Amino acid sequence: MKTAKEKIKKEVTHQKCDINLRSVDVKGSLRCGSVPAEGARVQLYRVKSENASEIIDSRTVGPSGLFNVNGNTQGKPINQTDIEPILRIFHKCGDDAKKTGHRRFQLGIPKDFVSNTRMAKHTYDIGEYNLDITYPGEKRDKNFQ
């Protein structure tokens, strides 16, 4: 049986973890011209980084073109619990079949949509993006698979 001191220590440790926990939720719709951008990939990063370990969620867009990605910092070291979320979209919309790699652009997610809880309190809706358009900062990622 645990002593009162052990119970308090466990509760305080649990509260510390919850204090540092951050989460974010993003949804939207992707089109390629007039059709849904089925097969596009959407990745949610904890911070702006090329490091795959910073991905907190990743989804392939289905036949409707709709997506929803969300994640949190549960399990991350305390020095990695802050979130400055970046949404990256990878696609081949409008590409010639001979081109290698994927087109890629990213969107910053406002800090107002970062919650101090395990599940995000609010969802950031990016609306609808037509991937036929070349977006500012768009790049070609030849290593994306």
Describe the structure.
It holds the Pfam family TTR-52. Its main location: secreted. Belongs to the nematode transthyretin-like family. It is found in: Secreted. Keywords: Secreted, Signal. The protein has a five-stranded antiparallel sheet with strand order 4-3-6-7-9, with no helix packed on it. A hairpin with a 2-residue loop joins strand 1 (23-32) and strand 2. The longest helix is centred in the N-terminal third of the chain and has 17 residues, at 4-20. It is elongated and about 65 Å long. Helices cover 12% and strands 37% of the residues. The termini are far apart. The protein has one helix and nine strands; from the N terminus they run H-E-E-E-E-E-E-E-E-E. It has one domain: Immunoglobulin-like. With 145 residues, the chain is mainly beta.
Secondary structure topology:
Layout: H1 4-20, E1 23-32, E2 35-36, E3 41-45, E4 55-60, E5 66-72, E6 86-91, E7 102-108, E8 124-130, E9 139-141
Parallel strand pairs: 1-8
Antiparallel strand pairs: 1-2, 1-5, 3-4, 3-6, 6-7, 7-9
Summed up, what is this model?
This is Transthyretin-like family protein. InterPro entries: Transthyretin-like, Transthyretin-like_sf. By secondary structure, the chain is mostly beta strands.
